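Bug #77: duplicate submission created two jobs. Keeping one. Sequence:
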Amino acid sequence: MPKITYIDSDGKGRVVDAEIGSTVMETAIRNGVPGIVAECGGACSCATCHVHVDEVWKDKVGPPSAMEEDMLDFAFDVRPTSRLSCQIKVTEELDGLIVHTPAQQG
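Kept job's structure:
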């Protein structure tokens, strides 16, 4: 089972097990990770599951889709590594993924 590390804006990390095929957002919600609101439930329509993908993982996670980029316009503290966690599918290749949650969601 892949592990994902969520690091909050204060630098506190939490490592959780993720199911293959789920999303980084679903994994956060199931495990009570603070900083992921997910108001739309993963429909890519609210930008409240925004994360900064750790630079080391940027290429493996890949770029946001055009729809996701549009939604990121509503997010707080958007960076080149910003993604909506509802759009990142968990795979074996993402075992060890590190994401950072912003101080607030959009």
